[in-house]
């Protein structure tokens, strides 16, 4: 499902996953516990995800928020980053 040419393709075990998405710690974190929620299906933009894929991404967000609150007590914020197509590796 995930495209191995994508800069976000990872072969490691994810922190948590569901049928359509997974979570990894960011390789270049800006904050403590900085994480990425990545859909398993490769698409050019977030807006090409199906409603089910988007819902499963946000379900993972809820799960990691609960887990992270146990560790840091304060959820400092959320940033939704949409990676422009020109930053993606072409197939």
Query: pLDDT average, as an integer?
Result: 77
Q: Please provide the count of β strands.
A: 3
Specify the helix fraction band. Answer: 10-25%
Class by alpha and beta content: alpha+beta
Q: What percent strand? A: 5-15%
Total domains: 1
The side-by-side strand order for the widest beta sheet comes to 1-2-3
Instruction: State the distance separating the first and last CA atoms.
Output: 14 Å
Overall 3D geometry?
globular
Uncertain segments of ≥5 residues (pLDDT<50)?
none
* N to C succession of SSEs: EEEH
Largest sheet: 3 strands, antiparallel
CA-based gyration radius: 13 Å
Number of helices: 1
Report on this model:
By secondary structure, the chain is an alpha+beta fold. It has one domain (16-87). The chain has one helix and three strands. It has one helix spanning 51-72; strands spanning 16-17, 21-25, 35-39. The protein has a three-stranded antiparallel beta sheet, with helices on one face. It is globular. The protein starts with 15 loop residues before the first strand and ends in a 19-residue tail after the last helix. The model has no long low-confidence stretch (mean pLDDT 77).
Question: Which properties best describe this structure?
Answer:
3 strands; 13% strand; alpha+beta; 91 residues; 24% helix
Short description, anyone?
The protein has one helix spanning 51-72, and strands at 16-17, 21-25, 35-39.
């Amino acid at each position: 499902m995930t495209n191995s040419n994508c800069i976000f393709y990872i072969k490691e075990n994810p922190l948590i996953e569901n049928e359509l998405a997974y979570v990894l710690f960011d390789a270049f974190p800006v904050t403590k516990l900085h994480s990425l929620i990545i859909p398993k299906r490769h698409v050019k933009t977030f807006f090409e995800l199906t409603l089910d894929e988007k819902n499963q991404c946000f379900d993972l967000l809820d799960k990691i928020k609960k887990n992270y609150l146990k560790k840091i007590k304060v959820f400092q914020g959320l940033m939704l980053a949409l990676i422009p197509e020109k930053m993606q590796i072409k197939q």
